[in-house]
Automatic annotation (TrEMBL):
It is found in: Cytoplasm. CDD domains: HisRS-like_core, HisRS_anticodon. Its main location: cytoplasm. L-histidine binds at residues 85-87, 115, 129, 133, 307, 311-312. Belongs to the class-II aminoacyl-tRNA synthetase family. This is Histidine--tRNA ligase. GO terms for biological process: histidyl-tRNA aminoacylation. It catalyses: tRNA(His) + L-histidine + ATP = L-histidyl-tRNA(His) + AMP + diphosphate + H(+).
Length: 502
């Protein structure tokens, strides 16, 4: 600040959005909403703020409530936090209204979430998510349904053939970690560090994850992230599992392929009962998706998917876009994940004496919107709204009459505004151009006495201007400008708008 004048600046990790972006994103959200409702999901809205204790151990430590989440104390000295995701508030809502809602309960929510983390390229402190969840269904058929919904939603958004939904199971990874000596409650913190390290595989590669599984890693800025401190053989066992890739032969027997793949994974988890249970659940999901016509090109098992949050208890999944893009270094890379989720059977049960199964996924709205822009999705075409008809004010003593013209247009359902500045006619015309106005209405004393008003078609005028060489020619031609009786103003404006916008 200089003196008492604050500096106009946007906080790091936050964004302003223009009208064109808002309108285009709204169309995308409507498409997602329609896909979710087709599957029987219903809308729910939760507040931005929850009691910090409701977020629980699955988010940052309650003893340090500002670590990872934005928190404050109310007048009762209760800690409150801005929601970190949309899942924890859903768990609280379901537990609070458990007897009143139908179960299984299918809901969708859209809204902003907040992360008190270091911002960076593509990492924000406020961003929008769009979630769909099924609470009260223990069967992996619910997980298969969620995977199919992820695929169908991306199809409806125009991304068919440019994504894959990858499915894994945290029980399988738990089995791998048991084989690495990481079982038991005393190893919970170390396991979470492992999960978060593996979740960065796409971004950091095997070498970066290897460092995070070991002593730790220093990033480009010099910040150091402490690692999981695993032994070398445990690190290589985990990396071998999460880096494994395979695909069925084109036209081959997919189910025979899955039998072979899951047999290989059983060797990795060894005698772990948890790991073998996870493999069986994965096999069942693949059978269900395959029976519904979702082939390996759309939904597949993939060991690299782990999801970083601790509350996942079973199947986990991510929707990854497969088309190439240029990163900040000019390298060609895949766009990556735009949605993800999984089963979290313990989250709702924190509030109740009995377990409550749940599964669902979240779409990263901003990231998905960026993807649709990159592929020039037809969904976003034509979303730029024209500006309002602008009624110029040439005689300020007659401003009430100009306001009456504006009211007549609005009463006819035509977007219109009165110029409220103090500039002259030339500046008012420039203002109309900057407002992307299709039409300007002009009435001086001569037109008023004649009971007329001039209608200037700014779109046609701009086209005509390209063929007019001088200001004198412009004044003589007065392109795309007509004078009509005031009684005909609304009808003629409507005709011009219909010609340009249909």
């Amino acid at each position: 600040m200089t003196g008492d004048t604050p500096k106009a600046r946007l906080p790091r990790g936050f964004l302003d959005r223009s009208e064109s972006e808002i309108v285009a994103q709204h169309r995308m959200l409507e498409t997602i909403k329609q896909a979710f409702e087709l599957y029987g999901f219903e809308a729910l809205e939760t507040p931005f703020i929850e009691y910090t204790e409701a977020l629980g151990k699955f988010l940052p430590d309650l003893d340090r409530p500002n670590e990872g989440v934005f928190s404050f104390q109310d007048d009762d000295e209760q800690w409150l936090s801005l929601r970190y995701d949309l899942t924890a508030p859903l768990a609280r809502h379901v537990a609070e209204h458990f007897d009143a809602i139908p179960k299984p309960y299918r809901s969708y929510r859209a809204g902003y979430v907040f992360r008190n983390e270091k911002p960076g390229p593509g990492r924000f402190r406020q961003f929008m998510q769009f979630d769909a969840d099924i609470v009260g269904a223990a069967s992996v058929a619910a997980d298969a349904e969620v995977c199919m919904l992820m695929a169908d939603t991306l199809d409806k958004l125009g991304l068919a053939g440019q994504y894959v939904v990858k499915v894994n199971n945290r029980k399988v990874l738990d089995g791998v970690m048991e084989a690495c000596g990481l079982a038991g409650s005393g190893k919970a913190g170390q396991r979470l560090t492992v999960l978060r390290a593996i979740d960065k595989l796409d971004r950091l590669g095997a070498d970066g994850v290897r460092q995070l599984l070991g002593a730790g890693r220093k990033d480009e800025s010099g910040d150091f992230t402490k690692g999981a401190a695993l032994e070398a053989d445990a690190i290589e066992r985990i990396l071998a599992y999460v880096s494994f890739e395979a695909s069925p032969n084109e036209g081959g027997d997919r189910m025979a392929f899955w039998e072979k793949l899951f047999g290989t994974w059983q060797d990795v988890v060894g005698e772990s009962e948890t790991g073998r249970e996870g493999i069986a659940e994965l096999h069942a999901i693949m059978r269900l998706c395959n029976a519904a016509g979702y082939g390996h090109d759309r939904v597949r098992a993939d060991a690299s998917v782990v999801r970083g949050l601790e509350y996942y208890t079973g199947p986990v999944y991510e929707a990854e876009l497969t088309f190439p893009v240029q990163n900040e270094d000019g390298q060609t890379v895949r766009f990556g994940s735009v949605a993800g989720g999984g089963r979290y059977d313990g989250l709702v049960g924190r509030f109740r004496s009995e377990p409550v199964p749940a599964t669902g996924f979240s779409i990263g709205v901003s990231r998905l919107f960026s993807a649709l822009q990159l592929v020039k999705s037809p969904l976003l075409e034509g979303t730029a709204k024209p500006g309002p008809v602008v009624v110029l004010v040439l005689d300020r003593e007659n401003i009430a009459e100009y306001q009456a013209h504006v009211a007549a247009l609005r009463n006819a359902g035509i977007r219109a505004e009165l110029y409220l500045g103090s500039s002259g006619m030339k500046a008012q015309m420039k203002y109309a151009d900057r407002r992307r106005s299709p039409i300007a209405l002009i009435q001086g004393s001569n037109e008023r006495e004649a009971g007329e008003i001039q209608i200037k078609d700014l779109i046609e005028g701009a086209k005509a201007a390209q063929n007019i060489g001088s200001n004198a020619e412009w004044k003589a031609a007065r392109p795309a400008q007509v004078s009509v009786p005031v009684a005909e103003m609304v009808e003629r404006v409507r005709e011009i708008l219909a010609r340009h916008y249909g």
